[in-house]
Structure formats: structure tokens, C-alpha cells
Amino acid sequence: MRVGVLALQGDFREHLAVLRGLGADAVPVRRASELDTVAGLVIPGGESSVMDKLSRAFGVAEPVTARIAAGMPVYGTCAGLIMLADRLLDGIAGQQTFGGLDVAVRRNAFGGQLDSFEADLPVPAFGDPPTHAVFIRAPVVESAAESVTPLVSLPDGRMVAVEQGGLIGTSFHPEIADDLRFHDYFLEKARAAA
Ligand code: GLN
User: Is the domain defined by 2-193 classed in CATH 2.60.120.10?
Assistant: First the structure.
């Protein structure tokens, strides 16, 4: 089973390293022919408006959207979560997403001093220890359909990690915090789908 990391922009190298460390055959995906070879896809952090433009310019936006609709497991972190959202708040003019996750996500939800921060947050589905969540100009999930399961929430109740079917999204970056459990969970879903 092979998985891909969308490698147009952002911290795709870190995700490739984590997935390979977990024993996966992980490859960068920049074009439709590469997407065809993978059973699941990670969409990294970066800048969602740039990722949106590049994915359309490279002709992978439509194939990714089609694979998501066909049930391909996808894990999106930060900008990747934004790309998975069906509804985007505070995007730039004309910004589009792949969609698939029945949520509204607000881009750059933490202004000013909270722009970037770290917090240890419980992940009930994974048990102990809590995850060391690193937020970098991060989005939040403002609302979600009932079919969406919250995985991690802030103390004020806002959702920062969710799951729906084969899709996982986190506002934060486990790939730079040495928490392998989200990638492991993604690989489980990809294996089941393959
Ligand atoms: N603020 C970025 C965006 O809008 C996301 C930041 C990140 O991925 N670390 O895409």
C-alpha cells in the first residue's frame, strides 16, 4: 500500500518523514498520475490560498476532489484542514477548497498574540498522553455536521481536530511535535481502503 503527501507547497517533507518512519511507502504527489498510485493522501500545512492556486494550476485539484468524493482517506493539517473543508470563512477573494469534510473552517482564527501557540490537549479517542498541539496561524472548525466527530477541542470548546469517515483534519501540526498517532490513524484508514 502506497500513500501520498500533496507536495505543491508547505511542510510536505516533514509528513513524508513521519509516514516513512511509520514504515509506510510514502511519495510526494504533484500531478494526477502520481495521485492515481496512492491509497491515501496527506495534505500538509502551509498557505491554503497558495495551495489552492497551485493545485488548480497543476491540474490536481479536480482529481483530488474526485478521489475524496470516491472515499480516499485523507489527513489534512492546518492549511490541509482548510483544503478539506466544505465551507471556508475568511478565505482570500476567490479561494476554493477541495472539500469533503462537512464543516465550516475559519482561516487564521487566532489573531494577535495568539497567532502561534502550543498547548497540551486531550485526545479521548487515543487516550493518554494528551497531544502537544502546535498552532501556527491556525484555523478552527467553527461548525460541523452531526456526522463529524470531534477528536480534539480547546478548553473553550472550539474544535481543532475532527474526523468524518476516511477524513481527518487537525488545526495543529503533529508532524513537528513527535506525536505519531494521527498519522498512524490515517495509515489505518488507508490500509482499510486499499
Ligand atoms: N494560515 C495558513 C492558511 O491560511 C495556515 C497556516 C499553516 O498551515 N500553518 O493556509
Answer: no
